[in-house]
Amino acid sequence: MEGDPAGGAARAPPAERRPPAAPPRLSEDPSGRPPRPDPLSNLAAAYGSSLAWRGRALAERLVPLRRLQCYFAVDTRYVGQKLARLLFPFGHQDWQVRYQQDPPVAPRFDVNAPDLYIPVMAFITYLLVAGLALGTQNRFSPDLLGLLASSTLAWLIVEVLAVLLGLYLVAVNTALTPIDLVAFSGYKYVGMIAGLLAGLVFGKPGYYMLLGWCCVTIFVFTIRSLRLKILSEATEGVPRQVTQNQVRMYLTMAVAGLQPLLMYWLTFHLIY
Fold first, then answer.
1. Mapped to the 3 state alphabet, what secondary structure does 232-269 carry?
2. Which residues form a coiled coil (predicted)?
3. Is 211:191 a contact under the CB 8 Å cutoff?
4. What are the angstrom distances between the C-alpha of 1 and each of 6, 11, 75, 214?
5. Alpha carbon distance 47, 194 (integer Å)
6. Which of 26, 91, 125, 191 is deepest in the core (most CB within 10 A)?
């Protein structure tokens, strides 16, 4: 054992050093009192919450999410019956929507109610079938498929805006909403898919035959579905001049006649 250099005397332990006290923060009171609330921060928080509430209200007004949910409330039975009416509308007599509610009735409760499920699914399927058709002809490219999708959406928007303008010019007081018009305009994708599939299997003769049938059926379907809405004032007994009723009927026929034209325009270049 080594000796203590101080002659064996025990060395006193060193004094414990205390860390220096932290300086008070700028937001704290040196006396220890709780900080006072900043009126500017409270005002900014209130203004931010007000802007968020106004933004949600504006978004709900422009894109009514609650109404959109009703248009997607479908089931397997409704989809089957709706597709049957789209492809074989001649044997059906009842085209009146039984329930008139706001928000609109869920389509699964009434087969005559418009929906967005079939148009959206048909639009996606149309792009897939179009890509398949382009691939069989060695013409497929992502850019071409994207151009096809954007042009199809552009034609849909132009069609809906044109119908809204026609309803405004004719001064039709109808319960049709822009979402309803999107739904009715999107039903033509079902016939376009059928025509393209027939063209892939049977060539141009099959394409023209099945597309022609679907053009006739979508014309009849649109006429029978929209005439009860566009001509609703005349059927409810409101006195109108004969010329005004004729103009409304012409508008209904124009909307229905536009569907086959767009069906051919959006598909003829995909079949060779």
1. HHHHCCCCCCHHHHHHHHHHHHHHHHHHHHHHHHCCHH
2. none
3. yes
4. 15, 16, 93, 108
5. 54
6. 191
Tens of pLDDT, residue by residue over 123-132, are 999 999 999 9
Question: Nearest-5° angle of CA 60, CA 64, CA 69?
Answer: 130
Measured CA to CA, the distance from residue 25 to residue 19 in angstroms comes to 17
9 — phi, psi (to 5°)?
-70, 140
Cα–Cα nearest to 195, from 124, 91, 121, 270: 270
Structure-block tokens of residue 154:
């552009």
DSSP state of 28: S
Instruction: Note the pLDDT tens digit of each residue in 177-222.
Output: 889 999 999 999 999 999 999 999 999 999 999 999 999 999 999 9
DSSP-derived letter for residue 113 is S
User: Contact, 133 vs 95, CB < 8 A?
Assistant: no
Residue 263 has pLDDT above 80, yes or no: yes
Q: Where are the domains of the chain?
A: 116-269
pLDDT at 25 over 80: no
Tokens representing 21 are 């006290």
Q: What is the DSSP string of 189-247?
A: HHHHHHHHHHHHHHHHHHHHHHHHHHHHHHHHHHHHHHHHHHTHHHHTT----HHHHHH
Q: Locate tokens 């026929």: which residue?
A: 253
What is the predicted pLDDT for the residue at 29?
52
Q: How far apart are the first and last CA of the chain?
A: 105
Contact (Cβ atoms closer than 8 angstroms) between residue 189 and residue 126: yes
